């Protein structure tokens, strides 16, 4: 059975750290907590779980802090988390089983990272990350902001999930680091350009964000998943700026990088819904349902766009096309995922009044595209 060192960097995490460490302590053999300047009870909480609490002088470089934490690990494998992450009970059990069975020739194990949830606890946004890595492989973190773990060798994808439980951190922190680096004349990597644009967008600086997203795409050196995401974020920026033509253009540009993803099919469907071309909207919303993103995709996935959302919009489209039984069928499909959504409830009442309760006991099935 392998041994696992948990390595974390923290700062002012007194609200979340105990929850995080409690959720994983059964599965790890060593906890390394590196503090980057806390002024609250973070270090006292950490010491309830481990003696291995270290100070690291903050130098505006997340990779440097994480690499320092990794350098303190002593077990066979290193697991990393943020303080607002947890292992749910079922995922902890899976991790314990993996610990018993993992072959020593595995260099990295990826895990799902569940980021957002609906009111029923269903995952609505997730991605995949290298989460458990072999210590002797000496993998390093790269990037002062939005750092990533550079791995190679034999990598396996697990069905274990880490759950993100909110983020109360300083929302200006990352943007300030990028601005300081830019002022110092530092060259940005393509990844830096993309994440700088993200920070600008998050701060509602849409015109400037669009400049950097375009720069990122025009350089042509980005990871394909970031290219696709940048197209969507550019479309969002232009919608905020009132330029629907450019928003459509960058939605279409995403198709240059691979098969249409559900998120972009929904964007296309919404475009045609807004222009009143309901048949075209139906086509795109169906594509969102019928062509979900690959389960092992490393990119960010908005699971709403392959589940309840396109069904809800198909309900609207078919209603406007006068095909009310099919509209009801899609609303029922949306209700399967989101039974308490106000629009779903409203549609149900409206369509049952339109059709009569008995008329919809067995919802009609589609036989052809309109």
TrEMBL record:
InterPro entries documented for this protein: Glyco_trans_2-like, Nucleotide-diphossugar_trans, TPR-like_helical_dom_sf
The Glycosyltransferase 2-like domain, residue ranges: 5-106
Highest taxon of source: Bacteria
The name this protein goes by in its record: Beta 1,4 glucosyltransferase
């Amino acid at each position: 059975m392998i041994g696992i060192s948990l390595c974390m960097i923290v700062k002012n995490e007194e609200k979340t750290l105990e929850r995080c460490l409690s959720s994983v302590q059964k599965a790890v053999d060593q906890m390394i907590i590196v503090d980057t300047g806390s002024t609250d009870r973070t270090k006292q909480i950490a010491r309830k779980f481990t003696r291995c609490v270290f100070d690291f002088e903050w130098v505006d470089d997340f990779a440097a802090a994480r690499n320092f934490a990794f350098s303190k690990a002593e077990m066979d494998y290193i697991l990393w988390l943020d303080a607002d992450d947890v292992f749910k009970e079922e995922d902890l059990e899976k991790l314990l089983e993996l610990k018993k069975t993992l072959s020593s020739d595995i260099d990295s194990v990826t895990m799902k990272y569940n980021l957002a949830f609906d009111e029923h606890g269903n995952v609505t946004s997730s991605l995949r990350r290298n989460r458990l890595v072999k210590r002797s492989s000496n993998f390093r973190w790269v990037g002062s902001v939005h750092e990533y773990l550079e791995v190679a060798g034999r990598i396996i994808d697990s069905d274990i999930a880490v759950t993100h439980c909110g983020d109360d951190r300083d929302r200006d922190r990352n943007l300030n680091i990028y601005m300081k680096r830019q002022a110092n004349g530092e060259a940005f990597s393509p990844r830096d350009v993309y994440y700088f644009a993200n920070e600008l967008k998050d701060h509602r600086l849409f015109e400037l964000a669009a400049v950097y997203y375009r720069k990122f795409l025009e350089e042509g050196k980005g990871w394909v998943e970031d290219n696709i995401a940048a197209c969507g974020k550019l479309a969002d920026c232009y919608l905020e700026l009132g330029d629907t033509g450019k928003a459509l253009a960058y939605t279409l540009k995403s198709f240059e990088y691979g098969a249409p993803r559900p998120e972009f099919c929904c964007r296309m469907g919404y475009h045609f819904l807004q222009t009143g071309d309901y048949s075209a909207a139906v086509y795109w919303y169906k594509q969102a349902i019928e062509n979900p993103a690959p389960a092992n995709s490393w990119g960010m996935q908005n699971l709403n766009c392959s589940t309840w959302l396109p069904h809800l919009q198909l309900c609207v489209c078919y209603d406007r096309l006068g095909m009310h039984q099919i509209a009801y069928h899609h609303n029922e499909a949306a209700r399967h995922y989101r039974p308490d959504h106000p629009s779903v409830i409203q549609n149900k009442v409206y369509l049952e009044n339109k059709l009569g309760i008995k008329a919809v006991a067995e919802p009609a099935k589609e036989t052809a595209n309109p």
